[in-house]
TrEMBL record:
Residues 50-271 form the Non-reducing end beta-L-arabinofuranosidase-like GH127 catalytic domain. The keyword Signal applies. InterPro entries: 6-hairpin_glycosidase_sf (IPR008928), Beta-AFase-like_GH127_cat (IPR012878). It comes from the Eukaryota. GO terms for biological process: carbohydrate metabolic process. It comes from Parascedosporium putredinis. Keywords: Signal. SUPFAM superfamilies: Six-hairpin glycosidases (SSF48208). This is Non-reducing end beta-L-arabinofuranosidase-like GH127 catalytic domain-containing protein. The keyword Transcription regulation does not apply. Residues 1-27 form the signal peptide.
């Protein structure tokens, strides 16, 4: 296969060129504290690969343009409204992020991750600025929980009662609240580890504490019943938090979301 080439001073380089001579972008700013044993392969650090002029590079440029176009205040609209803060005159989104859509704020975590990846890969300062502003405003939402009667650490674009409905298995409005919470936590984790944003770390830990507090009150049977409704990727993001911090507490919380109806047959070698 012939890869698209560029015409740099080092001659023809493949589209995914290892940038070994000049690291123009940053690697993970906050490395994981967790020990890795038996790992034979690791992902490339974001800053170690460069896209040359090509359709792939064009796609990256289009994505960057989109990320820079996004208005953080519009992305914050549902968070602020739900946590009792001014929406700063921003216009709400429509569609799947409309103020009346069940799982609004489910994609903002993806955007936060994209801004963090953008800066780590391209050193684009505007991506960092948007991410840090977004995180700081999320922190204000979380800090206002007492005014709304929410439990400390909760953060989302819909009332905490939606989580209670998942626990009771009475949710019927099409929402997938843990799915949305998972995405926000994953975005905060990436802002912490790729930007070194300690505010993102603090908000993330607040959310993790909230998850621990809620699920620790439920019996194993109650949790397994809850998982039949929905749980997003909570075990995934909490396991990532455990790896990043080296704190086994978060792995224990993650394992509460292991769905036995799925996991137990797999352990017995059954796939259907």
């Amino acid at each position: 296969m012939r890869f698209p080439q560029n015409s740099g001073s080092f001659g023809a380089l493949p589209i995914l060129a290892l940038n070994l001579l000049s690291r123009s972008a940053l690697a993970q700013v906050v490395p994981p504290a967790g020990n890795e044993t038996g790992v034979l392969a690791h992902a490339f650090e974001l800053g170690s690969l460069t896209l040359a002029d090509s359709r792939w590079g064009d796609n990256q440029n289009r994505t960057l343009t989109y990320l820079l176009w996004l208005d953080p205040d519009r992305l914050l609209y549902n968070f602020r409204a739900n946590h009792g803060l001014s929406t700063q005159g921003a216009a709400p989104h429509g569609g799947w992020d409309a103020p009346d859509f069940p799982f609004r704020t489910h994609f903002q975590g993806h955007i936060l991750t994209a801004w963090a990846y953008c800066f780590s890969t391209l050193s684009e300062p505007a991506c960092r600025e948007k991410a840090e502003y977004f995180v700081a405003e999320l922190a204000k939402c979380q800090e206002n929980n007492g005014q709304k009667g929410y439990t400390a650490g909760y953060l989302s674009g819909f009332p905490e009662s939606e989580i209670e409905a998942v626990e009771r298995r009475t949710l019927s409005n099409g929402n997938v609240p843990y799915y949305a919470v998972h995405k926000t936590m994953a975005g905060l984790l990436d802002a912490w580890r790729f930007l070194g944003d300690e505010k993102a770390r603090d908000v993330l830990f607040g959310m993790a504490e909230w998850v621990d507090a809620r699920t620790s009150k439920l019996s194993r049977t109650q949790i397994q019943n809850m998982l039949q409704t929905e749980f997003g990727g909570m075990n995934d993001v909490l396991a990532d938090v455990a790896h990043q911090t080296g704190d086994a507490r978060w792995l224990s919380v993650a394992q509460r979301f292991d769905h036995e109806a799925v996991m137990a047959p797999l352990e017995r070698g059954k796939t259907n």
